[in-house]
Amino acid sequence: MPAAQVASAQIIMRLSTLSATRGGTAASLAAVERVRSLSSFAGADSDWKQQFQAKSSLKQAHPSKRLVILRHGQAQHNPRAEAARENGCDFDEFLRLMEEDDALDATLTQLGEDQARNAGESAARAGSPLSRAIQTADLVLPPSPNHERKCVEDFREINGKLLNAKRLPSSELQGKFGHWCFENIPEQDESWTPDLESRDACGQRGYSGLAWILQQHAENVLLCCHGGLLSYTLNSNEKVVLIDSRDAHERERCITKRFGNCEMREFIATAWQHESGGGEVPHVITLEEVSFSSPVGEL
């Protein structure tokens, strides 16, 4: 069977599961099915949206947006832990190394600053309220009155346990980054706890953030946030469907691979609702990864 047909069958299989559970999340989705369901639509299949709608009883809820997602540059807690992850360490070892190198609201290293400066110009419109994400966005695109910048709590890193996941008071952040909007960010970090946030809770929080982006007026959005959050949101939340429409020569990197420091990817983001249902929160969000369509500075 051609690759496009295989991919279509896998997406349709997953949509059948979602259609059967309209009232909520299909919590019983098995891990194996999850991996299969994330297999990409082939980019040559230009009618995937029509197939998606026909097979899922879903309708597009909002106009699609160009969403460029950027992970922050290397921060104080990253060097040893990220190197160990690349060499295949388990999560416990990864967490131990981050704890040893932990720092409150960890900032960028010199390498992290250099990574951000080299990432290219982008219009930052949404980001995590943690300093390293704000720093990265500002180095990628220096402050400008033409670019609205909002910090959103939903886009912070996996919360709890580590000090690098705990943010500064919002008044202190506003003093450091006066060109950012911290509206609806509580003064104190009320959500951080000594216990590590669960995968499901983090993935749902990230999903809520994506739903918020899709309700905004901007057609082009840069989101600067965190590797753990992105991994849990894009790969562990069954309401997010990844579709691969990149050029063939760019597909060596798996679409589900964890974001590296200062790595940037472009998506077409679309929210979908059931034909019979309303509400502001979409039932499914598709993220169609594409090859960069134009210079990021044109966002």
UniProtKB/TrEMBL annotation:
Descriptive protein name: Uncharacterized protein
Family annotation (CDD domains): HP_PGM_like (cd07067)
GO cellular component labels: cytosol
Domain of life: Eukaryota
GO molecular function: phosphatase activity
PANTHER family: BROAD-SPECIFICITY PHOSPHATASE YOR283W-RELATED (PTHR48100), PHOSPHATASE C1620.13-RELATED (PTHR48100:SF44)
